[in-house]
Amino acid sequence: MTTSTLDRSTAPATILSLRGISKSFGAVAALTDISLDVAAGEVVAIVGDNGAGKSTLVKVLSGVHLPDAGTIHFNAQPVAIPNPTSALDLGIATVFQDLALCDNLNVIENLFLGRELRPARLNDIAMEVRSWELLRQLSAKIPSVRIPIASLSGGQRQTVAIARSLLGDPKVIILDEPTAALGVAQTAEVLNLVERLRERGLGVIMISHNMADVQAVADRVVVLRLGRNNGDYKVGTVTPEEIIAAITGATDNAVTRRTSQVDLRTIQPTVLPDGTVEPPSSENLNDKETER
Amino acid sequence: MTNTATRPSDLQDERLQNREGIRGTIAGFVDKIRGGDLGALPVVIGLAVIWTVLQILNHGFLSAANLVNLLLESSPTGVIALGIVCVLLVAQIDLSVGSVSGLSSAIIGILFVNLGWNVFAAIAVAVLTGVVIGWVYGQIFNRFGVPSFVITLAGLLSFLGLQLYVLKGIGTINIPFDSPLVIFAQLAFVPAWLSYVLVVIAAGGLFLSDLAKARARRGAGLSAQPLSLIALKSGALLIGLGFAAWYLNIARGIGWMFVLFVALVLILNYALTRTKWGRAVFAVGGNVEAARRAGIRVKTVYTSVFVVCSTLAAVGGILAASRLAASSQSSGTGDVNLNAIAAAVIGGTSLFGGRGTAFAALLGIIVIQSISSGLTLLNLDSSFRFMVTGLVLLLAVALDSVSRRSRTSHGRA
Ligand SMILES: Nc1ncnc2c1ncn2[C@@H]1O[C@H](COP(=O)(O)OP(=O)(O)OP(=O)(O)O)[C@@H](O)[C@H]1O
Ligand SMILES: [Mg+2]
């Protein structure tokens, strides 16, 4: 991994470059003047609080939302991404946070949706074989690929959505919280996959709330805060505390306070006389924090 | 699982119960029904009940002569219902199919009879009218986002008005009995020998295609239907269709118009299940946003579906005029619209989109036509027909909603 990082630093071929991207929904400015660069063979993690605008940025890149302002360069060419088809045509594959699968279709049909083999006489067998290959590669625990997506668990669906992004020949893969619902083995597989994608020279954008995952695979961490760029760090030169400070916008924040001072176990839930359990109230929490 | 290595690559998960062979197929079928994936089962059972009751009430009902007629009567509205299946699959509706079919009847009457056009030219114009109407619906739907319910309601009124306008002062146009249209719809029957040949081709075709598919699947290391099951299925088809052909041949046999209807069902079934377009239709009906993000041109899919529906409505109108040997101001009015929509729903097409087959139109229209024919035989007028058909429709929709709920709880949404 370190060698490849060095290789890249000598020849950084920026594959995707955003400048000044803004997007508002009515009165809410979800993105303001965002810049982002992704090189071939680079894993860029985008982190930020809930509502920071990460998914909105992903949707701009995948053609779901049109930006209000800003430019996008793909392979040094200025491009517009007016719809999902053009994103896919450029080679930008996305795993959406809400997965975007069709419940009434089965796993194979979802995987190949929009990219069916042999359009006029579907080649079910080739598609099924390829589906199994992809899913095994991700250690997917899916009993059958011929059952509707609706009957899969959340993590199984997420695996299907990830597998779908690998079909075709993408140049950039965007993963919006890809491991949020995954088990330990599947998370590890996804992280391995991200590393394999990097070795194959793809640009990977990964959104995650999990600092450990980010530190494990990302080359760079881009922080969004309230819809603005709030830091761009090289992994290895930055501590998790610094990233968290950038995410929350303060060094003295709830996360650092919690990790350094509060021991959760000292906050006991109250058992009421009728046997029900009352969660610790917020005053309780504050008490504990002020006690320090 | 000791034999994991020897199992087909799609059946290696150890949680999978062994569902191979004929027993496994039956067990899988029972699972599906329990899970609310009813498929054609309710309509087949419903048809059996309706036929039994009507046969008890009137012994002429299941006579070959009556069934021959019933199938011919089913065809025009059945073709229209086929289009309705398509729009329902994308969770839209077309309320104007009756008016479009009436307009198409009027066009045939005026061009072919009154103006003496070549029959094919007249048919082409009528069909093209359907294409254009569907295209316009698609454009309005895509551009302005008006609900299809409203667009086609406007279409219902407008095209009915247009039909009345072009037939103003003419009233009813009789299509000559010796014209190819009327001959096709009333007098042309498949010769007995040919009907058996067609049955053998159908069963043999199913057998060979299943066999080829099983071989290819096994070659690719996937599970496949055993030979016994394939033989059983095509054998059952052979016997079933063979018996039907034999029984209908006691009377006049199978009308060519019904053959056309079945051919359209098979073509649409192929398009929906075996082509990229069909996948797109189901995807749009299941989750439009997911379909859009998968790169499907959703607007094109909507337009294509509206075009298919209006075109089939126009074809249905031509068939109806041919069957009646007349086109008039009342063609396509009355219950045509509702029968076509009811047929699609009764046949098992979900109103919620993303669920249904082309065969729904075939089965549904036979149910509706059976009720109609049975009540006519009992000398009950259309008031009863409406009430009974309404009741059956309500049952079908209720079943759709209940099975949808059951599917959700069994994870088959
Ligand atoms: N379709 C939409 N319509 C209106 N507002 C939206 C829409 N999508 C997002 N927003 C708003 O934009 C802001 C950013 O949302 P976004 O989904 O990008 O956050 P996020 O960073 O992905 O958060 P999370 O970590 O919770 O996934 C939020 O304030 C949200 O309310
Ligand atoms: Mg998000």
Structure summarized in a few sentences:
The complex is a heterodimer of chains A (292) and B (413). With 292 residues, chain A is an alpha/beta fold. Chain A contains eleven helices and twelve strands.
How does this model look, in words?
The complex is a heterodimer of chains A (292) and B (413). Chain A is α/β, with parallel strands linked by helices. Chain A has two domains: 2-251, Rossmann fold (3-Layer(aba) Sandwich); 253-292, no CATH class. Helices cover 36% and strands 24% of the residues of chain A. Chain A is globular. With 413 residues, chain B is mainly α. Among the domains of chain B are: 75-188 and 256-363, no CATH class; 189-254. Helix content of chain B is 73%, strand content 1%. Chain B has helices at 21-34, 41-57, 64-89, 97-114, 119-144, 148-166, 180-187, 192-219, 227-250, 256-274, 276-286, 288-293, 298-324, 336-346, 359-377, 382-409; strands at 173-174, 326-327. Chain B has a two-stranded antiparallel sheet. In chain B, helix 7 crosses helix 13 (298-324), helix 14 packs across helix 15 and helix 15 (359-377) runs antiparallel to helix 16. Residues 1-5 of chain B have low confidence and may be disordered. Classes of the chains: A alpha/beta (292), B mainly alpha (413). Chain A binds chain B through residues 62, 64, 83-85, 88-89, 94, 96, 99-105, 109, 112-116, 119-122, 125-126, 128-129, 132, 141-148, 150-152, 164, and chain B through 9-11, 13, 15-16, 213, 216-217, 220-222, 274-277, 279-280, 282-283, 285-287, 289-297, 354-355, 407-408, 410-413. The complex binds adenosine-5'-triphosphate and magnesium ion. Residues 54-55, 97, 176 of chain A line the site of magnesium ion. Chain B: Part of the binding-protein-dependent transport system for D-xylose. Probably responsible for the translocation of the substrate across the membrane. Chain B: Keywords: Cell inner membrane, Cell membrane, Membrane, Sugar transport, Transmembrane, Transmembrane helix, Transport. Chain B: It comes from Subtercola boreus. Chain B: It is found in: Cell membrane. Chain B: The chain crosses the membrane at residues 38-58, 70-90, 119-137, 149-167, 187-208, 229-248, 254-272, 301-324, 336-352, 359-378, 384-402.
